[in-house]
Amino acid sequence: MNKSILTNLIALLLLAIGNYFNQPIVFNAGLFAFSGAITNWLAIHMLFEKVPGLYGSGVIPARFEEFKTAIKRLMMEEFFTDANINRFLKQEMNRDQPLDLEPVIAQVDFTPSFDSLVDVIQHSSFGGMLAMFGGSDALQPLKQPFIEKMQASMIEISQSDTVKQALKTQLESPAMLDEIKINIESIIQQRLNELTPQLVKEMIQTMIKQHLGWLVVWGGVFGGLIGVIAALVQ
Questions:
Q1: CB atoms within 10 A of CB 137
Q2: 189 contacts: CB under 8 Å, gap ≥ 6
Q3: How far apart are CA 186 and CA 177, in angstroms?
Q4: What whole-number distance in Å separates Cα of residue 180 and Cα of residue 170?
Q5: Among residues 67, 48, 44, which one has the least CA distance to residue 58?
Q6: More confident call, 166 vs 230
């Protein structure tokens, strides 16, 4: 069962038991646990969905264009550099087999792309709420899944017939490096234009929700402990 749903159900069960048997400690534990869990769930939900009346919600879809720009910059500045293109030209000039860029992509450091995403979230109106749960450190468990997803996406783009054909066409004119880069950049831009805010949201949502679900669990746990303490000191 989904961790968030299970946490909220347990909190509601404690709340009901405490109310039915008139047990203030159990009631407070359930009330505070539900409050903490539902608040954290709403915070995660607000990352992806625009909630009417709640300023700053839907930050990831709202930053859709910045996300595409970051991908393009990563491809051109980290992958399709002058040195890499020259290496491709030398290696592929006399080869008839299709270009395979996957080994090169596997060596690309995608950390700057993840850092850019974290920076966008921190400097959004959601940053203050994120700071309550450890700031950027709370997002570090997402780093490796994000990098793996980005590598898979870049490999898919590099293996497209359009990119391969663009490189092969220019292999006979290695002096035209600037033109090669312009053509590649244009192709990448065309592919990125095919992305929609919904696709980007679903891609990131799948990765993040799996890990940030623990925020709901710990929100319920610490909320319940606060409720118990509050009941004991009354």
A1: 10
A2: 72
A3: 14
A4: 7
A5: 48
A6: 230
Q: DSSP strand E in the chain: where?
A: none
The CB-based long-range contact list for 113-119 (8 Å cut-off, 24+ gap) reads 113/70, 113/71, 113/74, 113/146, 113/150, 114/142, 114/143, 114/146, 114/147, 114/150, 116/70, 117/67, 117/70, 117/146, 117/204
What distance in Å separates the CA atoms of residue 35 and residue 94, rounded to the nearest whole number? 66
Structure tokens at 171: 């292999």
C-alpha–C-alpha distance, residues 207 and 139, integer Å? 11
Q: Is the pLDDT of residue 76 over 60?
A: yes
Contact 124, 45 (CB under 8 A): no
What's the pLDDT score for residue 48? 77
**Tokens describing residue 181:** 């880069």
Let me know how long the chain is: 234
> In the numeric block, which tokens belong to residue 211?
């890990």
The structure tokens listed for 149 are 């997803």
Integer Cα distance of 217 and 124 in angstroms: 24
